Amino acid sequence: MNATLKTLLASAALAALSGSPALANKVFVSNERGNTVTVIDSDTWEVLEEFPAGNRPRGITISPDGTKLYVCASDDDTVRVFDTETYEELHTLPSGPDPELFVIHPSGNPLYIANEDDNLVTVTDTETHTILAEVPVGVEPEGMGISADTKYVVNTSETTNMAHFINTETFEIEHNVLVDQRPRYAQYTKDGTRLFVSSEIGGTVSVMDIAEDGSPTLVEKISFEVPGIQPEWLQPVGVKVTDDGSRVFVALGPANRVAVIDGESLEVLDYIVVGQRVWQLAFTPDQKYLITTNGNSNDVTVIDVAEAEAIRSIQVGEQPWGVVVQPD
Amino acid sequence: MHRLSVLLAAAFMMLAAPVAALDVRAGVLRVDYPSLLPISRYDLKPEDLGFAGAALADEDNGTTGSFLGHSFETTTVAVTPEEADAALDTLLADGVRLIVVLANAEDLLRLSDRAAEEGALVFNAMAHDTALRSGECRANLLHITPSDAMLADAVVQYAVWKQWSDILLVEGSNPADILLGEAFENAARKFGAEIVETRVFEDTGGSRRTDSGHVLVQRQLPVFMQDAPEHDVVIAADRSDVFASYLPYHLWTPRPVMGSAGLRPVSVHPSHEAWGATQFQTRFEELTGRYVQEADYDTWLALRVVGEAVTRASTAEPDGIRDYVLSDAFELAAFKGVPVTFRDWNGQLRQPVLLFDDRITVSVSPQDGFLHQRSPLDSLGLDVPESQCTAFNRG
User: How many angstroms separate the CA atoms of B141 and B113, rounded?
Assistant: First the structure.
């Protein structure tokens, strides 16, 4: 693309921005069993489209400019890349076997991918479509997070039960922190001073303080309690933190609830009832809404963040797994 | 909360401090008994039965250990019943104090008692006998393998959930079959099902299979099964593998079969994929070139219990490991959807039981609605008041 065209496109985008007061964003939901991605409009909450996305789509993310959708097609052993306008597949990326979850560098390159079957984190260049590094980690790597300063990528390994802190320059593991059983997800706060790691079978969320040099200190384990629900079914998976750090949302799997946690006191404030087997979460860019994927009721729930209330549910494809919202 | 955080921080800092490197040495002792060939070739025992699970556990534990400076090495021995005691002595003389045993109840008890003299901890990865979790329990013997009581409870809970409450029980004539039959009778009493008749299938000896033997089976089995009272389901208790596999499709009255054939209670099977088990299966198959069997999984799990205790409690001593795994702090993910833990009254691993139709997981017990004040998992097997075990000092 030449420079003139880029400028033209940029001004067109600006014009579009100023012309529409409530900016709608596309919400992309991967449907693990349906082998599709459902597209939802975040203004009308209507389903716009459902398109084929390869075999067993799970992890899903988007380029910072919102033009490319990345989907872990786990059973195809590849990452599929789609155009967010046309939903055409643009190309695939080498991912290593059975990619499940990944995190994208805020610049859009590279992609850090957890390979469940091979005890590896694969680092893939999104422009040259090549593998930059393979980092050996614990058994069954899954959750992936990137620090605010991008100096560390955190991977959680489900059978080793650790959070591994990988230096993004050297690809060496610099810290390992033991957490509770089957860690599924890692999420830094926006300011990078905290890290939350959910443990599905342990039933807890480990909270780490992150020092300036990126080194972690485990300070707290948050646990959950809902009257009438067996403690074994309170299984934390997806975690999201508001940009100001005031609220932490945790998807509790087969408990069919999302926990709302005070980011300061780390007390659980509330449990929001959502659809069945809730796993992953995503905010809209204005953080007004949080979208949850409910794998066993084939829908997503939209939560009003300020009110901490579920406001609607939307039917999607079969067994929704992951969700990402197009940036502004 | 703030004070708690500070306290926790202090505790975690201690944990984070450099820990001593540990070389963890374990043994797997498998006793091979003379036996007839199984009815189905699918049940042939591979040479590396159990040992394959140990190899995978060494890899899994080793990967985790590499981040903490711990190494894991497991010695495996297969022996005849006559050689078992000498083989154990060799392991003990080598300094091995963590031993997984795959043997029958009688040998397991004798070996456990000998191991206790040297302060060794034993994990049972084969014997189902409920008595081992009751009057015959041992303080240094932990049971990974589910008891007959747990397996029978898992099956009968499902029957009751389906409202198949009238059961025709068919049991074999060998002692192990009779024990399993008793477990089904107890389960029926416990969950309000009724055994309308117990029929005994005599083991008359002879080979299990003959060429085109199905012709005779097809004629004889329905006759054996006729004139039974009204029943919803047939449950087979056939540890000896003499007749259960012949029951489905050969009954006089068409009914589902459960227990030793049809819908079977298992600790794992090769098509179990839920709760991340796919990764376990692919790791196992890549390493061993075959499908997993229960003895492999039970051995793997025994050594994962050891690995988890070493990781969390930073000890490779049998007493330290035993104390940690029996404490409230211990829990382990085992691809069963909920953490597995130990019963501190008899050393039995608390775990869900898969119900398998030889193709897929049909259901997982405990079933919905079978509650227990401690954990629904304790609706399977011997609870505190039912177990006569006194070797574990609770509390």
Answer: 9
